[in-house]
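Researcher: Sequence recovery benchmark, item below. Answer with residues only.
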């Protein structure tokens, strides 16, 4: 078994369907597990006569299948490597045809592509879009979407789902103090080694204190957010 080989997990139930915001879905690559296993198991070819051609053809089909599944899941190379439990350089060897992965790698990528297409939880980019849509007109709802996305992020239980969380790019820009707030909270929910999108950069502290919601005097503020200039009562960040 290759360094990426590991136990195949069953498809788990979705971690909570978001209320008020439903991310767009994409269609997965056609799933053919018997084909995947067959190609991966036929990689040992004898380099004589016609067998050499058959080996090259199988490797090329396998390489194309890997690339198609990675694209279907919306992964970049780092995210795909995290999903199947190997290094980006090893995945690069698979895609270049220098190394042949086990059938488990293909099955994991097929499962990830299917989960990406049928997920009912928000990725980081979906949270940005939801907050950007409502932060000016309804900050209470924007905060609710942010906390819901944070809670769903914490609940993601598999490497594939954590990698999917990092896919995509926000369609709506988020600027100013709301960007500082959202980036701080989303990055805090991703301290489990998962890939973090390049656009989810660590925010700079605000020059002046800012409160996204009315403050309740006499109640404690969240210390972590206070370090970046955001004043919000701890209780506002607690969800049932």
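Model:
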């Amino acid at each position: 078994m290759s360094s990426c080989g590991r136990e195949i997990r069953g498809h788990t139930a979705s971690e909570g369907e978001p209320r008020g915001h439903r991310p767009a879905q994409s269609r997965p690559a056609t799933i053919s597990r018997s084909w995947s296993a067959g190609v991966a198991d036929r990689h040992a070819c004898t380099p004589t006569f016609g067998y050499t051609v058959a080996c090259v053809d199988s490797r090329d089909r396998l390489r194309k299948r890997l690339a198609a599944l990675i694209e279907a899941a919306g992964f970049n190379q780092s995210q795909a490597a995290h999903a199947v439990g190997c290094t980006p350089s090893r995945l690069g060897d698979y895609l270049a045809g220098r190394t042949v992965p086990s059938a488990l790698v293909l099955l994991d990528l097929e499962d990830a592509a299917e989960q990406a297409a049928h997920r009912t939880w928000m990725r980081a980019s979906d949270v940005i879009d939801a907050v950007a849509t409502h932060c000016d007109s309804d900050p209470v709802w924007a905060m609710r979407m942010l906390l819901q996305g944070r809670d769903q992020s914490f609940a993601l239980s598999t490497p594939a789902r954590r990698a999917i969380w990092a896919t995509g790019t926000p369609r709506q820009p988020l600027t100013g103090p709301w960007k500082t707030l959202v980036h701080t909270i989303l990055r805090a929910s991703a301290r489990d080694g998962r890939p973090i999108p390049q656009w989810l950069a660590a925010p700079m502290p605000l020059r002046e204190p800012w409160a996204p919601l009315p403050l309740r005097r006499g109640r404690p503020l969240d210390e972590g957010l206070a370090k970046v200039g955001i004043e919000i009562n701890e209780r506002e960040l607690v969800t049932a």
